[in-house]
Every structure is written in C-alpha cells, then in structure tokens.
C-alpha cells in the first residue's frame, strides 16, 4: 500500500506460504529474510523485512505523501495503532501460530485474537479517528488496518461491534492504492479468496 501511495514502481515476487510446504522456508528466501516471513523489500541496495520498518524507510526516503504526521502527538498515535495491529493482533493469528493451535482450533483462535485486538482498537480509534485512523490524512496506521480487516473477514469475524473500524476501512477501500494492494487482488491470491 505504501509503495502504491508513494507512486513507487515495484515488482512483486510472490512467496506462497503454503505451497511447497511454505516457500518462505526455501534457502533462497531465507537468505533475504532469516525470519522466513513476508514481506521483504529490496530497495536502494538494501533488503528490509517487517512491514513497519519498510514503511518507515519509505517515509524517510520518499516523504511524499506523508504517512507519519508532523505533529508528535499524532505521530505517536499512528505508531501506537500500527503497533497494536502489527504486534498485538496480526502475529497471533498468522499461519505459523495457527499451525501450533491445531486445525480444529484455528478458526476459534483467530476470531478470539482478532476480537480482543479489535475491542481495544475500536476504543483507541474513537479518540483518534477523523476520516481515517488518526485525523483526516492517510497514515501508516491505515496501512495496517486494511489488511487486518481483510484477515478478520477471512476468519468470519462479525464486524458489527466495530463501527469505527468498519467506517475507516470502507473509506480507505475507496482509494486506489488500497484497492490495488488489497490481499484479495494479489497475483498469488488463491482463487477462492480473490475479489
């Protein structure tokens, strides 16, 4: 989403987390990302993993449009929301954790984790949101929100208790950068998950 918002040309090289027992475990990919996770970005002669580190690098090297507000309080709110999603929700319902809880428990586990995170996130957003997560400018927090809502939908989470999250997500999905970057529109999205 950050690459699209900042109009940075890029080539996508899909890494299928299921096919071939997980392509992220290949020697070739491990050489790029020792954590064996996606995403990984090669840019400006360096390789960066972890979504927030990638977004922060792009922000520092290509500052237009801004994804972190100038105001320190708003910038802290953006980082708080981003970390709530990227550290407090997403890792707990990703594939490696779901494998550990067992096939029969995966859906219930993912729903519980997302509900717990969204309960907190909805409360936070009530005090920070404008048109988007923090005020009326798209920020790094919004880049974290949309993929997590897509995961919630994939895990059949009832979003009715989360009107602020739902409203912001809907507003963001009207923007082209979020449409072209949506998980259901990626080149390696399985047919049953495509939009």
TrEMBL record:
InterPro entries per record: Glutathione-S-Trfase_C-like, Glutathione-S-Trfase_C_sf, Glutathione_S-Trfase, Glutathione_S-Trfase_N, GST_Zeta, GST_Zeta_C, Thioredoxin-like_sf
Catalytic activity, reaction form: 4-maleylacetoacetate = 4-fumarylacetoacetate
Cofactor(s) listed in the protein's UniProt record: glutathione
GO terms, molecular function: glutathione transferase activity; maleylacetoacetate isomerase activity
Residue span, GST N-terminal domain: 1-66
Pathway: Amino-acid degradation; L-phenylalanine degradation; acetoacetate and fumarate from L-phenylalanine: step 5/6
Gene Ontology cellular component annotations, sorted alphabetically: mitochondrion
EC numbers on record: 5.2.1.2
A biological process term (GO) from this entry: L-tyrosine catabolic process
Keywords recorded for this protein, A-Z: Phenylalanine catabolism, Transferase, Tyrosine catabolism
Positions of the GST C-terminal domain: 71-191
Entry's family note: Belongs to the GST superfamily. Zeta family.
Entries under NCBIfam families matching the protein: maiA
Protein name according to UniProt: maleylacetoacetate isomerase
Organism of provenance: Mustela putorius furo
